[in-house]
C-alpha cells in the first residue's frame, strides 16, 4: 500500500471520473476498427487520458535500465501488430507492483508489473505476455467490452467495483479506483482470450521468438497461483492473478502448444536473466510489506496483524484482508483533525446506492493511538451485513482506517486486527529490507534443494524455487545453468 500515491475520493473527483468513464464509452458507439487498422487519433487520445489513472491505480511506472529493457522488448513485439510503423508509437511501462499482472489499453499503452517479469524465465516469455496484451488492443477487445458496458449502463454495470464483499451482494460498498479503470478491467470472453493468444504468438514468430513461450508462461502463471492459494489457505487455485480477465489457463496452454507446433525461435534466456538480476521481488517497503500475517509500513511507521485464517494482498491504494467470514481494506483519506468526522466521511463514501451511517461512533485508544469506530447494519441482496469503519489518528493531519464487511453479527471477527495496530520504532522500520532476484550459476554440487535453501523465506522454499524457475516437481538443475533465487538486499 503506497500511502504516497493515494488521493481523496471527494464528490468532485468522483464526478469527474464518472464523466471520463461515460465519455470513453460514448466514443465507442460507432464502428469498431478491425485488427489491421492502425491506432486512430481517438484511440490515442483515450489512451493518453487513461494512462494517468492507470499509473495511479496500479502502481508507479519504474525507470532505469531494467524498465528500459522491458520497454524495448515490448515496443519490438508491439510493432509486429501493424498498429503503428514505429516502435516508439507504443508506450510500454513496467509498474512497481507486487501482483502478477499485465494489460493494455487503446492507443498503444502496454503495461506489465515487475512481479510478473520476475516470474518469467526468458525474453520470449516477456514478449509473449506483452504480445498477448497488444493482441487485445489490435483486436479492439477493450472497445467491445466498453460498448457492451455502455449498452448495459442503465442496469448498473458501470457501477460495479473491483473489490470483493461477503456474499457478493453488496458490490457497491467498497470500491477501488475510478469507473474508467473498472471498465478497463472487465473480463474478456474466452474467444477474445484465445484470439489475443493467437495474435501474440503470431507476433512472436514474426519477431523471431519461439512461439512455445506463450504456453510456458501460462504454465508458470498457473503454478504461481496454485502456490499462492496454498500459502494463503485459499481453495480457488484455478485462476491466475493475471488475472480475473485471463481465465482457464489449462486449455489455453494446450491451445498455445498446438498453435506453436514444431516452430522454433530464439528465447534469449541468459540475456533475460542478466537483465532481471537484482529486480525487486514481492512487496516494495516504500509501499509496505506483508510478512506472514502482519502488514508493516516502515515509511509511515505502522504495523497490524490479520486474524488467523485470513490472507492479505498489498495494493497501491489499499491492503485487502480476505477470509471466509469477512473482508476488509486498510487505507487512508484526507484528515482534518477530527476522528468522528473522518469516520462519518468514510461511511458516506462507501455507496452511491444507499446512505450508510453508523448508529453511533465510539472513541477509544489502541496501543496509545487515538481511535474511533462505528458499525452499520446494511441490507444487501444476499442478506444483512455489518459494515465497520475503524480509524486511527497517527498525527494531527494523518489518519488511517479499516473498512470491513461481515455477515450480520460477525463484526467481532476483526477485533484482534483492530487492536493490533501500533507504531513502529525507528529500529523496526529500518530492519525492513526488500527481497530481490539474484541470478546464480548452478555449481557441480548444487541441487534444487540446496539452491532452494538460499531463498529468503522460512516456508515452502523448494516450491517457491521451482515455480520461480519454471521447474516441474521432477525437474533437476544442471551445472552451468543459470537460475533465480530470492534474497534480501537493499
Large-scale geometry: globular
Number of strands: 17
Sheet with most strands: 7 strands, antiparallel
Helix-residue proportion: 25-40%
Strand content: 15-25%
Radius of gyration, rounded?
23 Å
Q: Structural class, from secondary structure content?
A: alpha+beta
Number of helices: 16
**Stretches where pLDDT falls below 50 for ≥5 residues?**
2-29, 151-186, 237-247
Oligomer: single chain
Terminal CA distance reads 19 Å
Describe the structure.
- The protein has helices at 11-26, 41-58, 65-78, 114-119, 123-138, 141-151, 179-184, 190-206, 213-232, 249-260, 269-276, 339-348, 415-420, 426-430, 448-452, 461-468, and strands at 91-95, 102-105, 109-113, 280-281, 289-291, 294-297, 302-305, 311-314, 319-323, 326-332, 362-366, 369-380, 383-395, 398-407, 422-423, 435-441, 482-488.
- It has a 7-stranded antiparallel sheet.
- The longest helix is centred in the middle third of the chain and has 20 residues, at 213-232.
- It has 490 residues and is of the alpha+beta class.
- 36% of the residues lie in helices and 20% in strands.
- Helix 5 (123-138) crosses helix 8 (190-206) and helix 9 packs antiparallel against helix 10 (249-260).
- The two termini are 19 Å apart.
- The radius of gyration is 23 Å and the shape is globular.
Amino acid at each position: 500500500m503506497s500511502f504516497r500515491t493515494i488521493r481523496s475520493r471527494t464528490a468532485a473527483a468522483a464526478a469527474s471520473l464518472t464523466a471520463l468513464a461515460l465519455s470513453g464509452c460514448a466514443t465507442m458507439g460507432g464502428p469498431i476498427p478491425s485488427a489491421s487498422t492502425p491506432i486512430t487519433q481517438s484511440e490515442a487520445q483515450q489512451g493518453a487520458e487513461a494512462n494517468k489513472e492507470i499509473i495511479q491505480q496500479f502502481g508507479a511506472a519504474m525507470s532505469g535500465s531494467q524498465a528500459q529493457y522491458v520497454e524495448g522488448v515490448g515496443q519490438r513485439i508491439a510493432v509486429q501488430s501493424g498498429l503503428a510503423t514505429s516502435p516508439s508509437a507504443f508506450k510500454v511501462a513496467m509498474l512497481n507492483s507486487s501482483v502478477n499482472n499485465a494489460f493494455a489499453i487503446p492507443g498503444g499503452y502496454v503495461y506489465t508489473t515487475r512481479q510478473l517479469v520476475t516470474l518469467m524465465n526468458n525474453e520470449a516469455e516477456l514478449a509473449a505476455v506483452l504480445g498477448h496484451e497488444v493482441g487485445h488492443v489490435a483486436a479492439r477487445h477493450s472497445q467491445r467490452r466498453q460498448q457492451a458496458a455502455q449498452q448495459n449502463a442503465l442496469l448498473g454495470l458501470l457501477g460495479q467495483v473491483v473489490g470483493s464483499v461477503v456474499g457478493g451482494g453488496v458490490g457497491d460498498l467498497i470500491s477501488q479506483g475510478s469507473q474508467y479503470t473498472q471498465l478497463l478491467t472487465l473480463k474478456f470472453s474466452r474467444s477474445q482470450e484465445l484470439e489475443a493468444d493467437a495474435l501474440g504468438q503470431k507476433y512472436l514468430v514474426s519477431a523471431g521468438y519461439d512461439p512455445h513461450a506463450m504456453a510456458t508462461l501460462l504454465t508458470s502463471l498457473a503454478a504461481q497461483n496454485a502456490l499462492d492459494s496454498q500459502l494463503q489457505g485459499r481453495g480457488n487455485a484455478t485462476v491466475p492473478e493475471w488475472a480475473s480477465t485471463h481465465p482457464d489457463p489449462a486449455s489455453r496452454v494446450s491451445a498455445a502448444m498446438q498453435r506453436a507446433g514444431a516452430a522454433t525461435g530464439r528465447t534469449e534466456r541468459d540475456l533475460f536473466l542478466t537483465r532481471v538480476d537484482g529486480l525487486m521481488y514481492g512487496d516494495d517497503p516504500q509501499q509496505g510489506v506483508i510478512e506472514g500475517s502482519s502488514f508493516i509500513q516502515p515509511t509511515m511507521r505502522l504495523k497490524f496483524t490479520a486474524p488467523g485464517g485470513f490472507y492479505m494482498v498489498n495494493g497501491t491504494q489499499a491492503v485487502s484482508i480476505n477470509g471466509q467470514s469477512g473482508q476488509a481494506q486498510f487505507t487512508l483519506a484526507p484528515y482534518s483533525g477530527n476522528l468522528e468526522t473522518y469516520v462519518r466521511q468514510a461511511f458516506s463514501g462507501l455507496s452511491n446506492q444507499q446512505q450508510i451511517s453508523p448508529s453511533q461512533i465510539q472513541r477509544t485508544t489502541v496501543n496509545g493511538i487515538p481511535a474511533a469506530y462505528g458499525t452499520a447494519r446494511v441490507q444487501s441482496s444476499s442478506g444483512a451485513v455489518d459494515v465497520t469503519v475503524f480509524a486511527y489518528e497517527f498525527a494531527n493531519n494523518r489518519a488511517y482506517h479499516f473498512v470491513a464487511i461481515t455477515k450480520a453479527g460477525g463484526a467481532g471477527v476483526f477485533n484482534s486486527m483492530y487492536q493490533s495496530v501500533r507504531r513502529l520504532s525507528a529500529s523496526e522500520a529500518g530492519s525492513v529490507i526488500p527481497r530481490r532476484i539474484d541470478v546464480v550459476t548452478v555449481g557441480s554440487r548444487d541441487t534444487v534443494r540446496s539452491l532452494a535453501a538460499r531463498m529468503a523465506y522460512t516456508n515452502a522454499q523448494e516450491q517457491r524455487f521451482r515455480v520461480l524457475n519454471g521447474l516441474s516437481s521432477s525437474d533437476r538443475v544442471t551445472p552451468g545453468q543459470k537460475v533465480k533465487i530470492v534474497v534480501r538486499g537493499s
